[in-house]
Amino acid sequence: MSNVPALDATDARLLQALTQDPRASVMALSQKLGLARNTVQARLARLEGNGALAPFDARLRPEALGYRLGAYVTVQVVQRSLVDVGEALADIPEVVEVTALSGVADLLVRVVAIDADDLWRITEQVLSIPGVQRTDTALALRRLVEHRVAPLLDRAAGTD
User: Which GO terms of the molecular function aspect are on file (predicted)?
Assistant: First the structure.
């Protein structure tokens, strides 16, 4: 799904430390890991540059901005329109994530809305995109497991 390069054990340990204390300074991280400050700084810059670290806005919760309703919209697209539909979806502010799928549905679109009327407006907007054939919307009721990578970092760092 991504072109992000694999991490080595030192990268994983660095990210573990950052996960435990996201506000840690480069100096604090270097002391905790027993690495030179320049090494930590260079690795962090590389991890940010190659996409291993998600943008900061990935940490923001839409609920804090008033978007308390979440939904997943599966979208069937006219063949060869996938890129155009993806670009049009990116223009809708309430679309927070789009994933291309194999199977009956072509796209899984995560949207946020203020309320049911707002969700209706958003789904109508999605349906009006040229190339969209059909949508199916499922409300997100409750997140049972938060997005996490800590168990994967533990494995990569050899600490699981």
Answer: sequence-specific DNA binding
Residue 1: per-residue pLDDT? 54
CA atoms within 13 A on the CB side of 119: 21
Q: How far apart are CA 24 and CA 30, in angstroms?
A: 10
Is there a domain that residue 153 lies in?
no
Q: How would you classify residue 103: left for phi > 0, otherwise alpha for psi between -120 and 50, otherwise beta?
A: left
- Please check whether residue 75 is in contact with residue 68, taking contact to mean a CB–CB distance below 8 angstroms: no
Which residues of the chain form beta strands (DSSP E)?
Answer: 69-77, 95-100, 107-113, 132-140
Which secondary structure element, helix H or strand E, spans residue 88, and what is its range? Answer: helix 82-90
Let me know: does 108 contact 72? Beta carbons within 8 Å.
Answer: yes
H helices present in 21-81, as ranges: 26-33, 37-49
Sign of CA dihedral 56, 87, 99, 12: negative
- 85 & 112 share domain: yes
CA separation for the pair 62, 67 (Å, rounded):
5
Q: What is the dihedral of CA 29, 30, 33, 35, to 10 degrees?
A: 160
Q: Which domain holds residue 49?
A: 9-58
Does residue 69 share a domain with residue 32? no
